[in-house]
Design brief:
167 residues; mainly alpha; two-stranded antiparallel ribbon; 8 helices; 2 strands; 65% helix
Length: 167
């Protein structure tokens, strides 16, 4: 099926494929939160996506080749969502969006620490993170460095420090 596009501009075509803000939020939650099931994506997102919107975005992202879905062997009606190579290659874009957001919006410290680390780490960290995502989602051989663990440790350290100062 050939889809009509508004123009051949690469920015337009990217926006047509990604859709709206929810599509990037879903990719973000799978990428950075390793949320792979519908229920996790629905209940663990800070933004509170509606179930019908989530179902629509998962379907659209799968149809556009940004996610893959396989049946969960533990439950026939559950699916496990994985990033595909094109969505893994969104890491630099998401890192740049996070860096821009840190400079121009009122971010919270705990939710911006990962963006800060990705900005500071730059392309070498992005490449290591993409390699790790390929291992998690595409089954490539594991790398020594776990960027996901580094990002999660930094987030947990900020949360712990904030709860200590609040007590």
């Amino acid at each position: 099926m050939d889809i009509a596009h508004r123009s051949g501009c690469p920015i337009n075509l990217t926006l047509e494929m990604l859709g709206d803000r929810w599509s990037l939020i879903v990719i973000r939650d799978i990428m950075f939160g390793n949320r792979r099931h519908f229920r996790e994506l629905l209940t663990q997102s800070e933004e509170g996506i509606a179930s019908n919107v989530l179902a629509d975005r998962l379907k659209r992202l799968t149809e556009n080749g940004l996610l893959s879905r396989r049946d969960d062997p533990s439950h026939k009606q559950k699916g496990i969502y994985s990033l595909t190579e094109p969505s893994i290659q969104l890491v630099p874009l998401l890192a740049q969006m996070g860096a821009w957001g840190r400079r121009h919006t009122p971010v919270s410290e705990e939710l911006s620490i990962r963006a800060e680390l990705l900005e500071q780490g730059g392309p070498p960290m992005w490449e290591a993170f993409m390699a790790e995502l390929r291992t998690l989602h595409l089954g490539t051989p594991a790398q020594e460095r776990s960027v996901l663990a580094e990002l999660q440790a930094a987030y947990l350290a900020v949360v712990a420090r904030k709860s200590e100062t609040a007590a």
